[in-house]
Amino acid sequence: MALHVGLLNKSSLFLSGSRHLHLLHKNAYINGQWVIAASKEVFPVFNPADDQIITEVPDMDAVDAKIAVDVAANAFKTWKDTTAKERSYILRKWYDLCAKNTDSLAHIITAEAGKPLAESKGEIAYGNSFLEWFADTARHINGEIVPSPWPNKTIMLTRQPLGVVSVITPWNFPFAMITRKVGALLAAGCTCVIKPAEDTPLTALAAAQLAEEAGVPKGVINVVTCSRKNAPAVGKVLCEDPNVGCISFTGSTHVGKLLYGMASKGIKRVSLELGGNAPFIVFPSADIEYAVEHAMLAKFRNNGQACVGANRFLIHKDVFDKFIQAFKNKIAKSCIMGPGIKEGVTCGPLINTEQTKKVTGLVEDALSKGAKAVIGGKPAPEVGNKFYESTILTDVKPDMKIYSEEIFGPVAVCHKFETEHEVLEIANSTRNGLGSYVFTKDLGQAFRMSRQLDFGMVAINDGILSAAEPAFGGIKESGIGREGSKHGVEEYTDIKYTLFSALDK
């Protein structure tokens, strides 16, 4: 058991007892071994609710990343030849173990990501649904026999695993973003090196342990941990090493562009799930109370720290005041700040100091230029130095930074509109194109909005888009490729064309 007891005892993670310690590791995971960095350097992992150190993990660099890639490349030689049935069985067992260890995994997420414990358990259920889905999908990665233009030849197309995948995951959903990627690539027959976000590496290490217990062979999954200081060097290896066949990244558009540039040097496959700027559109025909319920889900899940979180609330002028009042009342009643381990808390801290400064700066800039805070509008230092009040802003103008930037925090920016044409112009006036939300009882309008919104995903009368079955992903600068669904597995395959000729001989 990999523990750093002197540090672990300080964290509020363990107020509920020590039964969750068996999944907490202080070492990285390469070739089936729990290892330290070649440099022996470490960096601390903090609980954002109280700034206590949970533990320290290896601060790996390019040397360690290269070792991990080579290990994954060697493991691919045998893993690619396992049967779909074998891979399906292992994924199903991984799913079962994660379900059995939900409480322990959730406590780790709450400790390092800050989200309320109930929400962390929800993430485990959501993330685990991908393992269940891909366990089934592994046995349905089919090819094609194409009608031949020649009488004595047969054309066969097969899907084959593309090799080692570099998996770079974010801090906001540290379990689900791993299972959504790794479950798919394992189903396809690939191997991987995971670089989790420096804020939340412990969840990745816990997931790796359960994968090992499920029977994933050594070297198939590897986890390289590193601080912000070493992230560029590690990222360079994971993008440019000749043994890497694909880079799968979820994170900011800025970092995605950098990784895309590095991947282009080797003409590597990329799967990029990047930033969003989701509109939440409410038409006069909508059920306002219902729309507000779903606005809470779309905006305040993980305290607004979600790429598909509603960023711009576009409310028709005829129902604007009614919506704002109901939204304000719901926030006042339902948004309860505090450490995620505390019962009844619905809004934990923001992930780190940088994110807290960003949200604070965006709101202060808007208020200084004439925006109005209907509720909230400031940090909550009496709760902790990374807590921010759930906020509604109105009278936001284009010259304010918050008008066009992705907030990634608990701030709802609300605008009025008058016509369908106008709201489409506003909604589509962004280079991002991930998720969008529309509330209307007009069926024709629903279909028009689905067709005309320039986003990869459109939710009609719902504030939650994500599941294992649909294809998740965006257009424009919100990414390339899809995750979840059968398309999520196909991202990690190459199509091979085989021509069988002289069949009449």
Topology of this structure?
Blueprint: H1 5-8, E1 28-30, E2 33-35, E3 42-46, E4 53-58, H2 62-79, H3 84-100, H4 102-113, H5 117-137, E5 144-146, E6 154-161, E7 164-168, H6 176-188, E8 191-195, H7 201-214, E9 221-223, H8 231-240, E10 244-250, H9 253-264, E11 269-273, E12 278-282, H10 288-300, E13 310-316, H11 320-334, H12 353-368, E14 372-375, E15 391-394, E16 411-417, H13 420-427, E17 432-433, E18 435-439, H14 443-452, E19 457-460, E20 475-476, E21 479-480, H15 485-490, E22 493-500
Parallel strand pairs: 7-8, 7-10, 8-9, 10-11, 12-13, 12-18, 13-16, 15-16, 18-19
Antiparallel strand pairs: 1-2, 3-4, 5-6, 6-22, 11-21, 14-15, 17-20
Radius of gyration: 23 Å
Q: Unreliable segments (pLDDT under 50, ≥5 consecutive)? A: 1-17
Largest sheet: 7 strands, mixed
Number of strands: 22
- How far the N terminus sits from the C terminus, by CA atoms, comes to 63 Å
Query: So how many helices?
Result: 15
Which secondary-structure class do the elements indicate? Answer: alpha/beta
Overall geometry:
globular
Q: Mean pLDDT, nearest integer?
A: 95
* Relative helix content: 25-40%
What is the beta-strand fraction?
Answer: 15-25%
Q: List the strand order in the largest sheet.
A: 14-15-16-13-12-18-19
